[in-house]
From TrEMBL:
<dbReference type="GO" id="GO:0016791">
    <property type="term" value="F:phosphatase activity"/>
</dbReference>
<feature type="domain" description="Calcineurin-like phosphoesterase">
    <location>
        <begin position="1"/>
        <end position="210"/>
    </location>
</feature>
<dbReference type="InterPro" id="IPR024654">
    <property type="entry name" value="Calcineurin-like_PHP_lpxH"/>
</dbReference>
<dbReference type="InterPro" id="IPR029052">
    <property type="entry name" value="Metallo-depent_PP-like"/>
</dbReference>
<dbReference type="Pfam" id="PF12850">
    <property type="entry name" value="Metallophos_2"/>
</dbReference>
<dbReference type="InterPro" id="IPR050126">
    <property type="entry name" value="Ap4A_hydrolase"/>
</dbReference>
<dbReference type="GO" id="GO:0005737">
    <property type="term" value="C:cytoplasm"/>
</dbReference>
<comment type="similarity">
    <text>Belongs to the metallophosphoesterase superfamily. YfcE family.</text>
</comment>
<dbReference type="InterPro" id="IPR011152">
    <property type="entry name" value="Pesterase_MJ0912"/>
</dbReference>
<protein>
    <submittedName>
        <fullName>Putative phosphoesterase</fullName>
    </submittedName>
</protein>
């Protein structure tokens, strides 16, 4: 099976449509959506409807911190721009769409794979995996050999040997990485809707569960249209401008 992994979509319709098209061309059989479907960009209603449709077709979907903020109210650590967008987003969604977000789980596990937006050890507290120590803590919190998380907005791959030795690297887009099950792996596919590694191209990854390979992808998309929508909606201009720089 080829499992397409998408995280941090952030109401960016143009980026997600481009990623879905590429995933289809690469023969993806199933989809895992690692949260943050809303926030930052101007198409939250379209995005939630799309996620609902994909879930009805068998996709895995996990709640992110921005989704949680729409349901529960923003946490204190959300930046001011994000808080403004959350308030606006609530006005754009129907009660049924908000209920859908409220019903999303914080984690999911199946077929030896673990899925969470932030991490495995405290998935509803939204700690970032920024260092090897956080990656080890997350991998130790699950028995799954392959874990997938988002939240960080930059692609990264960690692996842990049976002796407890950890290593990490930034993957090269389009190059398949062997991820055999005798090690434990934690993959951060990067952000679809708001990359933050200096590259404006949208991120996604493809896990081949038969060959045990993981391929990270970058997809150019029409970020000018996304930025124009953000500005037209009256959202903070910086959220549109930053898309051109991937920061």
């Amino acid at each position: 099976m080829k499992l397409a992994l998408f995280s941090d979509l952030h109401a960016n319709r143009e980026a997600f449509e481009a990623c879905l098209e590429q995933a289809h061309l690469h023969g993806a059989d199933r989809i895992a959506l690692l949260g943050d479907f809303v926030g930052y960009a101007a198409d939250p209603a379209w995005m939630v409807t799309k996620v609902q449709d994909l879930v009805s077709q068998g996709a895995i979907a996990i709640r992110g911190n921005h989704d949680d903020a729409v349901v529960r109210g923003p946490s204190a650590n959300l930046i001011e721009e994000a808080r403004r967008v959350i308030a606006w987003t609530r006005s754009q969604l129907t009660p049924a769409q908000i209920e859908f977000l409220a019903d999303l789980p914080y984690t999911s596990e199946e077929s030896g794979c673990f899925f969470a937006h932030a991490n495995a050890y405290a998935p509803s507290e939204w700690d970032y995996i920024l260092t090897r120590s956080e990656a080890i803590r997350s991998m130790h919190a699950t028995r799954a050999r392959h874990s997938f998380s988002g939240h960080v907005h930059t692609p990264k791959l960690y692996h842990l040997s049976s002796t407890g030795k950890i290593a990490d690297f930034t993957p090269t887009p389009g190059v398949a990485v062997p991820v055999p099950s005798h090690r434990q792996w934690l993959a951060l596919p990067g952000a679809v809707g708001q990359p933050r590694d200096g590259n404006p191209a949208a991120c996604w990854a493809l896990f081949d569960t038969d060959r045990y390979t993981l391929t990270f992808h970058r997809v150019p998309y029409d970020f000018e249209t996304t930025a124009a929508k953000i500005i037209a909606a009256g959202l903070p201009r910086v959220l549109g401008e930053r898309l051109a720089h991937g920061n």
